[in-house]
Design brief:
Layout: H1 2-48, E1 51-55, E2 58-62, H2 64-69, H3 87-90, H4 108-114, E3 121-125, E4 128-134, E5 140-145, H5 154-166, E6 175-181, E7 184-190, H6 197-212, H7 221-224, H8 227-231, H9 246-254, H10 264-284, E8 299-301, E9 307-309, H11 336-341, H12 346-362, H13 370-377, H14 383-386, H15 398-411, H16 422-476
Antiparallel strand pairs: 1-2, 3-4, 4-5, 5-7, 6-7, 8-9
This protein binds adenosine-5'-triphosphate.
Protein name: Serine-threonine/tyrosine-protein kinase, catalytic domain
Pfam family, one: PK_Tyr_Ser-Thr
GO molecular function, one term: protein serine/threonine kinase activity
């Protein structure tokens, strides 16, 4: 009887234990399922915020967070593989908060240290100064310090970082970090060692004049003594400046050295690079982005003279939503249609790009009546030759110059819808390059043939002289 009771107790205990085991398995399974579905939901949410990017004509989605761990994910025609980014991008310190867009956030102290306490000034823009920075792992960057009185609110800044963090292309100056610290707002960009296209076309000298003449009373005495030497007839009239910084003066004096002249090949490549950058903004990014302030000062060049479009995020409301917004842009580059209707479209960017192409051809600044020269040149088929940058005369192929001028002209069409799309512009510029390459190929082929013929003739000549030698020998040694 007692034994029977023991069996019952053991049975019940075993049953309870099995029950507990089953219950805990079910509990764990439910928990795992819930966790798993949550992760899946997060992943879906994230992928819905990724940027569909066209690779070789196909639409594909690039998940930025995934691309950080897998450096080979982005390998489109113009897309930058993360592996190509500077090493500090990958090796950023753990305490750097990575925003939703995957852009590392830096503290004020980090930036202060990287810029050696904001001493190495690269330039001054309307948003504030730009400093060179050496990041902790040795990578070089450019830090744009937004003026603290900037009307950009916290939210706009964050939105901007989120937007910029999602736009990556080899022809855009990439945002690689940012700083929000108390009232400080800074943007960290990849460093472009050859500066802006405006500097390269017009020379730092002229750019310095703009810097120096921003004030109103008198030019720095140091600079005055250099005036006759440097202007070369470019800068006329009395230039006045109130408060030139030591930086401006140094830059000015430094600029007296040899001016770098962009070759025609470089200019053509720059035009193609810019077109690819805009093509990505207009036709690759979703939603499309209208730059709204395309100008030669916003085109930066890297160490190998490849051009990248900059400042595509700082002008407000530049994501085109079809609605009207305040007039943005720079005098001389603004589409007249946009000015009269206040409607900014992609075709307004095309107009500004047309102006930049004419700057590349003529080295005439839009503030120096470039439009008048363009209209004059348009009166004859070779009119553009008359306004070609003097430094290119005899140094370039005029057929190519005219072809680029003709594309640029179409971009300036009065009626926006009659202007070509950026895709069409890229194709047309590419054709100029391809035509040249094909010609070079033919010439080198012809060259090859010629050298083959010459060497064949040479060897035949040797054979003949050998024969002649034998013959002569026979004659010299008679009997
Ligand atoms: N990523 C960069 N790498 C190297 N230099 C830079 C970089 N970004 C800006 N600079 C330098 O800083 C200068 C000022 O740049 P910024 O973009 O602030 O102004 P901007 O485009 O010249 O004028 P605005 O702000 O009126 O459009 C540039 O002319 C360039 O010389």
């Amino acid at each position: 009887m007692k034994q029977q009771a023991n069996f019952v107790i053991i049975g019940i205990s075993a049953g309870v234990a099995v029950g507990i085991l089953i219950a805990s398995i079910i509990y764990c399974a439910i928990k795992w399922y819930k966790r798993h579905s949550h992760l899946r939901r997060c992943a879906n949410e994230r992928s819905s915020t990724t940027l569909p990017i066209r690779i070789h004509g196909l639409d594909t989605s690039v998940n930025l967070s995934a691309s950080i761990s897998n450096s080979n994910v982005i390998q489109g025609s113009g897309l930058i593989p993360r592996s190509a980014k500077s090493s500090w991008w990958r090796n950023h310190r753990k305490d750097h908060f990575i925003s939703a867009s995957g852009i590392p956030r830096y503290s004020y102290k980090d930036i202060q240290k990287a810029t050696q306490n904001f001493t190495n000034l690269l330039g001054q823009g309307s948003f504030g100064p730009v400093y060179k920075a050496i990041m902790p792992t040795g990578g070089v960057a450019a830090v744009k310090v937004l003026a603290s009185d900037s009307k950009q609110g916290e939210k706009e800044f964050q939105t901007e970082v989120a937007l910029l963090g999602r736009l990556h292309h080899r022809n855009l100056v990439n945002l690689i970090g940012y700083c929000v610290d108390k009232s400080q707002r800074m943007l960290v960009y990849e460093f472009m060692s050859n500066g802006s296209l405006a500097n390269l076309i017009y020379g730092t000298v002229q750019d310095c004049f703009y810097d120096l003449s921003m004030g109103s009373s008198g030019l720095f005495p140091e600079c005055l003594s250099y005036l006759p030497k440097i202007t070369k007839g470019k800068v006329h009239g009395h230039i006045q400046a109130a408060s030139a910084s030591v930086y401006s003066v140094n830059k000015f004096i430094h600029a007296l050295g040899e001016e770098q002249v962009l070759s025609w090949d470089e200019r053509l490549q720059i035009a193609l690079d810019i077109s690819h950058g805009i093509e990505y903004l207009h036709e690759g990014a979703v939603p499309p982005v209208v730059h709204r302030d395309l100008k030669s000062a916003n085109i930066l060049l890297d160490h190998s003279m490849r051009a990248k479009v900059a400042d595509f995020g700082l002008s407000k409301e530049d994501v085109y939503d079809g609605r009207n917004s305040g007039l943005k842009g720079t005098y001389g580059y603004i589409d007249p249609e946009y000015m009269s209707t206040n409607k900014c479209t992609m075709k307004s960017d095309i107009y500004s790009f047309g102006i930049i192409m004419f700057e590349l051809i003529t080295a005439i600044h839009p503030h120096q009546n470039l439009m008048d020269y363009i209209n004059l040149a348009a009166m004859s088929s070779d009119g553009i030759d008359e306004i070609l940058d003097k430094r290119l005369v005899g140094q370039c192929n005029l057929v190519e110059v005219r072809a680029l001028a003709s594309i640029a002209h179409k971009c300036l069409h009065k009626t926006p819808r009659k202007r070509p799309s950026i895709g069409e512009v890229s194709q047309a510029i590419l054709k100029i390059k391809q035509r040249r390459l094909a010609k070079e190929d033919t010439m080198s082929f012809a060259g090859d043939n010629l050298s083959q013929i010459m060497s064949r003739l040479g060897s035949q000549n040797i054979e003949l002289s050998k024969l002649a030698g034998v013959h002569e020998g026979n004659e010299i040694t008679p009997g």
